[in-house]
Predict the structure.
Amino acid sequence: MSPSPPPLLLIEGLVKHFRGLRAVDGVSFRVEAGEIVALIGPNGAGKTTVFNMIAGVFEPDGGRVELEGRSLIGLRPDQVCRAGVGRTFQLVKPFGNLSVEENVVVGALRWTHEITKARAQAREVLDLLGLADKRRQPARSLTLPDRKCLEVARALATKPKLLLLDEVMAGLRPAETDRMVETFRRLNRETGLTIVLIEHVMRAVMALSQRVVVINSGQPVCEGTPEEVVRDPRVLDCYLGEEPL
Amino acid sequence: MSRQAILLGLLLAAFVVAPAFAGPYLLSVMVVVMYFAYVGQAWNIMMGFAGQLSLGHTIYVGLGAYTAAALFVHFGIPAIFGLFAAAAVAVAAGSIIGALGFRFGVKGVYFALLTIAFAEFTRILFEHFTALGGTGGLFLPVGSRDSFDLIHLRGHPLMFYYLILAMCVGIFLLCRKLLNSRLGYTWLAVREDQDAAAALGINVFRAKLTAVMLSAGLTALGGVFFAFYYNNLFPNQAFGMNRSIEIILAPIVGGLGTLFGPILGALILTPLGEGITAATEAMGFKAAGIKQLCYGLSLLAIVKFLPEGVWPWLRLRLGLGDGEEGE
Ligand SMILES: Nc1ncnc2c1ncn2[C@@H]1O[C@H](COP(=O)(O)OP(=O)(O)O)[C@@H](O)[C@H]1O
Ligand SMILES: [Mg+2]
């Protein structure tokens, strides 16, 4: 049919109910390889639920999720990871009793069986994210922003094609946000890493994403460049009563 | 060489030369210490590494013990072959329990209850299993105590002493290797957070099942030792709930998930129990359960004052650093 290659990520007509609540209701978007796309919307819009359906945590009640043309539906979270999708958790889930470095080593062991290789990769990633000097600390001793950083480090260590970031910059100081944005940009430029990020920090969304998808109450609102989206009255509408963009 | 390695070397040397100085009673106590260090280490793989609480772990001791003993008593098959069958039976039982529990998402306390249920069920089964002696027990013919027949596991108490010592060294080295392997990291990740582990590509079901199978097989080898050392087996002893508790005390007291914990715990608890038994007997009264009471009290003290176990605390005190033993 279509001669063009399938996009890296294809989401079409995604639906998820939780006991009568339509948490996600007909969300569609596509992400080409090498893109950075933001998924925004007010609290409870269904953003995390979309991620959970991509990552194999929830099976959708309807719709398609495809990675490079291959359906991810029915795969377990570990299989989705091995297919090349790394994700962070909005509510961070560090391996509390392991050191920061060991946390990241677990991620690196996705692609190697050798501990020395995994450790080298872990140090590289920790350097990149500015956690290197804390690598021997137990993860439970980290502050919340550092834990978010650790989520990113672990996911990155799995060497994903697609990275799903769920509010990793919440709680960071502006300077820290800028540094993390710079890190993602560099990764995107140098390794071609594709990123979908859920983010409330508009400073980061504007600086990082090439395209923004807006959803509200589980339903698509609009899609466009960051500049288009922040001027769209429908977007301003759905944020009414929320913190301003 | 690290100071931990030196400490371990000294301890090993003490156990190696002890028979030259110690009398038969002391040696028999040391055998018990090493037995509990061994099975504690095996249990620790499941709980300490993979975070899966097995409260019916004696099922694997019992199955291993009965399998090797029955093969020997009924078919004359030497222990050295019987142990493979023993491990295989225990691994099979572990796979069934694990697959049932993990497939249906039975977690935490409920999984622990499942393990107890299986152990109790097996105890009742063996009590009615007349071919294996039923409640009357299964007895192994005692051979010459002067030989050192490792093939049949018949012979001198010293043979058993060095055998269990070798088993302790073996399982220690194995666990150390495991902790520094991909599988070990996988287990630790699953223990800490299953969702995060899965998100990093770990097949949680398989990781837990591997831990149960390995732990069960190694525990069964302890059971084979138990059978041939004591020469008699009774279902209520081999599969009893109190046995399961005894197995888990040493690693908990010593330090869950550590390599030294099970050893240290056994070194503390067994002499404590023996001392109390001896003291009460010397005072001329037989108080059933006093040993268990003291175990309970020491466990309370540990949970209250050293919730991570004695070893992590001692390691700091001795200035051994807070790194894992493997480093
Ligand atoms: N596991 C769940 N069970 C029931 N309801 C859920 C579950 N996860 C999310 N929800 C509900 O779905 C809606 C969307 O949640 P979520 O995707 O977390 O929103 P967002 O990430 O956009 O803030 C919310 O109303 C939330 O309460
Ligand atoms: Mg969310």
Q: What stands out?
A: Chain B has a mean pLDDT of 91. DSSP finds 14 helices and four strands in chain B. Residues 204-230 of chain B form the longest helix (27 residues). The domain at 3-317 of chain B is CATH 1.10.3470 (ABC transporter involved in vitamin B12 uptake, BtuC).
